[in-house]
Write a structure and sequence with these properties.
binds copper (II) ion
Length: about 300
């Protein structure tokens, strides 16, 4: 025999179970749920070297980067993939690659462990069990990470969500701040509408380039699903803004400008409905005047 209070508890427990089952059936995915392994491994080879990088014509930066580029190559995977990186350090200081959100063991952290000494090649392993857009960067330079990041050791990791709607266009935007003392050459001050070196001139860049003439253009057409993957990896806070468009921010509020502090990132979509030649830029005035501005072109 079950007495009355126990029976009441059992009924309540059964009702709670039904409520939980309802929740599990709701379309909102649990952001902490890992994607199951795909069995696929993405192999990446990265070489860290020092090189001259053209931020804009006549603006030559003494860079340190992955595969002679600022930012380094986009590392792309599908959620559930394993990523294996062969990292070679051809500079004279310890260097590494460190990333965010994906799973990795301490031996692949890139701070105390997982550091390539000068001349060394190491293997770094990440389990890309969560979808999203994440930064990767050096974490072993002088002062922890500052020197490597400002020198150019930054990049984007894109982990596609196999359950997300397919995007026809994906725009990866890496916002960084440069160290003016690393410039080997800067353009002469141009008083006729050109860009001024000095102040914040040539200090704030998008995908390694300064100003809308030289920042790589993005393009889409009306009807495309356009996915933006925006990362902030510099020293300062940036407010990423796109003209003529709007999207739902992480807080669920409609917006066209988002705050991104150093080491933060955002992924958002819209279905394109507004043809034209649009600016996208950081809304901090010194940063926009310093080069953090590009063009997004939408065809009818
Ligand atoms: Cu900014």
């Amino acid at each position: 025999m079950i007495d009355a209070p126990v029976r009441r508890s059992l009924v309540l427990a059964a009702l709670l179970l039904v409520a939980c089952a309802d929740e599990a059936a709701s379309p909102d995915p649990d952001p902490t749920a890992e994607h199951p392994p795909t069995g696929h491994t993405v192999q990446v080879e990265l070489e860290i070297t020092e090189f001259d990088w053209e931020v804009a014509p006549g603006a030559i930066y003494r860079a340190i980067g992955y595969n002679r580029s600022i930012p380094g190559p986009i590392i792309e995977a599908t959620a559930g993939d394993r990523i294996v990186i062969k990292l070679t350090n051809k500079t004279d200081s310890p260097r590494s690659i460190h990333t965010h959100v994906v799973r990795f063991a301490e031996s692949s952290d890139g701070f105390m462990k997982g550091v390539a000494q000068p001349g060394e090649t190491i293997t770094v392993e990440w389990e890309a069990v969560f979808a999203g857009t994440f930064p990767y960067h050096d974490h072993a330079g002088h002062g922890g990470e500052t020197e490597g990041i400002t020198a150019g050791l930054v990049g984007a990791l894109v982990v596609h969500d196999p359950t997300a709607p397919m995007a026809q266009v994906e725009n990866v935007v890496v916002l960084t701040d440069l160290d003016m003392t690393r410039y080997a050459k800067l353009p002469e001050m141009d008083h006729e509408g050109g860009h001024a070196a000095g102040g914040h001139g040539y200090m704030h860049v998008i995908n390694g380039r300064a100003y809308e003439e030289w920042v790589p253009r993005f393009a889409a057409k009306v009807g495309d699903r356009v996915r933006w993957r925006v990362l902030s990896l510099g020293a300062e806070l940036h407010t990423f803004h796109v003209h003529g468009h709007r999207w739902v921010g992480a807080d669920g509020v409609l917006t066209d400008a988002i705050n991104l502090g150093p080491g933060t990132y955002a992924t958002f979509d819209w279905v394109e409905d507004n043809p034209g030649e649009w600016l996208y830029h950081c809304h901090v005035p010194d940063h926009m005047e310093g080069g953090m501005v590009g063009i997004y072109e939408v065809a009818k």
